[in-house]
Write a structure and sequence with these properties.
Blueprint (H helix, E strand, L loop, with lengths): L7 H4 L2 H9 L4 E4 L1 H7 L8 E4 L3 H7 L3 E5 L4 E6 L2 E7 L1 E3 L11 E3 L3 H6 L8 E3 L5 E3 L3 H7 L1 E2 L5 H7 L2 H13 L2 E2 L1 H10 L8 H12 L4 H10 L13 H4 L12 H11 L4 H10 L4 H19 L4 H21 L6 H9 L13 H6 L6 H15 L7 H11 L1
Parallel strand pairs: 2-5, 10-11
Antiparallel strand pairs: 1-2, 1-8, 3-4, 4-5, 6-7, 8-9
Helix pairs in contact: 7-9, 8-10, 8-11, 13-15, 13-16, 14-15, 15-16, 16-17
The structure holds adenosine-5'-triphosphate (ATP) and magnesium ion.
């Protein structure tokens, strides 16, 4: 198979391949970019594989960065773009079911393609647009199948993360899992416990926020993978709701909020749940805000102060979340009310702590409390956001 009209991301990189070829080495586009080209999906970056050693690549190009020399990867800066160029390699000596640290450079492409995870990820393309396909990746693209390269069982023993990658690609591409590959995941799901939480999390999030997440999540549950990840053990019944959702979440924060709601975690357990997944503090706060606001609007109509405290980002996320859960709320009305608030954050209030001190409020906790009271009054329309009105309000309320 030969591709004629290459998109710009590839044509821009052709001179890089040509330069490597001219120096006497092989070079191909590999992996995700070739797959996405054939699926007509958006291509974010192109990876290049070559028979040249890193030191040789560094001689060919003027500007290079030693990204992962040990693993054979050099980043080349060319024409305002950067390209990861990796020497053909095999990975041997897998221990503990994790990606090995030692790689062996090899001289031919087919050895390199063999180490790749799925047939659709084991495609390569040369400078002329000719596709190299040793494992019928093209057939699987047609059949929309995720199939392990070689014997699935062995491949998951080498690197158990590939089981999560399988469900992640299912979700992103809306593909199905080839039965033997699925069986091998069911048989080996326990190996996932050997993999670091961060690596599992990255794949889990990619799975969760992609369009096919409901079907992928069903497989994630059916194969037992869900039993091996933080906080999900013994929770299949709660999580079984996920595949029935109307939509996939589109943001990471909403994915976590959704998990917390499905797991029925009480407030005091949210921080722990977010931490065992090694999420950042910022993500933890964002998710707690969404869950908090979701609980609030599930129990009563929010007042203006609630909307102010939640902020637009949390309001919009929560509206999406309610939709995903099939509990639609009048989101437009909430956003309109937020937009109409007289103040959006404390800087919008014309008075501050200094103003209160100057106006005879003694220093101490009362200052903060009074400011909050003034904010509420402004938000509820009891007092206007100007110094005169607020001064009068303070005089009447102290
Ligand atoms: P994305 O669009 O998400 O970047 P991708 O296919 O490029 O998808 P990467 O994780 O960037 O995925 O990996 C690039 C390529 O490296 C894959 O297409 C695959 O060929 C190979 N690869 C990555 N991780 C593994 C793994 N754990 N085992 C085997 N091959 C892998
Ligand atoms: Mg990639």
């Amino acid at each position: 198979m030969k591709i004629d009209n290459l998109p710009e991301v590839f044509t821009a990189a052709l001179p890089v391949l040509k330069k490597i070829n001219e120096a006497g080495y092989e070079a191909y586009f590999v992996g995700g970019s070739v797959r996405d080209l054939l699926l007509k999906r958006h291509i974010h970056d192109v990876d290049i594989a070559t028979s040249a050693y890193p030191a040789e690549i560094k001689q060919i190009f003027e500007k290079t960065i030693d990204t992962g020399i040990k693993h054979g990867t050099v980043t080349v800066l060319y024409g305002g773009e950067s390209y990861e160029i990796t020497t053909f390699r095999t990975e041997s000596g897998y221990q503990d079911f994790r990606r090995p640290d030692h790689v062996t450079f090899v001289q031919n492409l087919s050895e390199d393609l063999k180490r790749r995870d799925f047939t659709i990820n084991a495609l390569a393309m040369n400078v002329d647009g000719n596709i190299v396909d040793h494992f019928d990746g093209l057939g699987d693209l047609d059949k929309r199948l995720i199939r392990a390269v070689g014997k699935a069982e062995n491949r998951f023993h080498e690197d158990a993360l590939r089981m999560m990658r399988a469900v992640r690609f299912m979700s992103q591409l809306q593909f199905t899992l080839e039965p033997e590959t699925e069986q091998a995941i069911s048989d080996n799901h326990e190996l996932l416990s050997k993999i670091s939480v961060e690596r599992i999390r990255d794949e889990f999030v990619k799975m969760g926020i992609a369009p096919g997440s409901q079907k992928a999540f069903q497989i994630f549950l059916d194969t037992g993978l869900s039993e091996e990840v933080p906080g999900f053990k013994g929770k299949k019944e709660n999580l079984a709701l996920y595949p029935q959702l109307n939509f996939s979440p589109t943001t990471e924060a909403n994915l976590w909020a959704l998990m917390i709601i499905l797991l029925k975690l009480p407030n005091e357990k949210i921080a722990h749940f977010m931490r065992i997944w090694k999420n950042s503090n910022a993500m933890e706060r964002q998710v707690a805000d969404i869950v908090g606001f979701f609980d609030l609007i599930s129990s009563r109509a929010p007042n203006n102060y609630d909307l102010y405290k939640a902020g637009l980002r949390t309001i919009v996320s929560t509206i999406d979340l309610a939709n995903i859960l099939g509990q639609p709320i009048n989101g437009r009305a909430l956003v309109d009310r937020y937009e109409a608030l007289p103040i959006k954050d404390s800087h919008d209030l014309v008075v501050d702590g200094h103003f209160l001190l100057k106006n005879g409020i003694p220093a101490g906790p009362r200052v903060g409390l009074l400011l909050e009271e003034i904010k509420k009054a402004v938000l509820e329309g009891i007092v206007s956001n100007n110094e005169e009105a607020i001064t009068e309000y303070i005089a009447l309320n102290n």
